[in-house]
Write a structure and sequence with these properties.
With 108 residues, the chain is an alpha+beta fold. The chain contains five helices and five strands. It has a three-stranded antiparallel β-sheet. It has a two-stranded antiparallel ribbon with strand order 1-2.
Length: 108
């Protein structure tokens, strides 16, 4: 779960911050929800973003249905991806059987 939430923070343009007695978001509400979930789980979006700087990005577009970011993690480049389930699954190195099983479980 920690790895998934780390990806949720790094492949994300939203921020959540405390302003007096309430919380304010910058960016897409769905992305802000991902950041909030990660912060509630004890991760620091600021620390993760500082430690794993974004090197490049493919921004989310409704046509492509995904967002991808490039980061150096543990000295190696990693592409992090989030988006529509069918779009993400297309880009995974899975067998046809695995793709079919996961797609069925997700209803896609």
């Amino acid at each position: 779960m920690r790895e998934l939430l780390t990806i949720a923070i790094l492949c994300n343009d939203a921020s959540v911050r405390r302003e007096q007695n309430s919380w304010a978001i910058t960016g897409d509400p769905t992305e802000a929800a991902l950041v909030t979930a990660a912060e509630k789980a004890g991760l620091s979006s600021q620390d993760l973003r500082n430690h794993h700087a974004r090197l490049d990005v493919i921004p989310f577009e409704s046509d492509s249905k995904f967002m991808a970011t490039l980061h150096m993690i543990d000295g190696e480049p990693h592409i992090l991806l989030k988006g529509a389930p069918e779009t993400v699954l297309e880009r995974c190195a899975l067998s046809e059987e695995e793709l079919h099983r996961i797609g069925n479980a997700m209803g896609v």
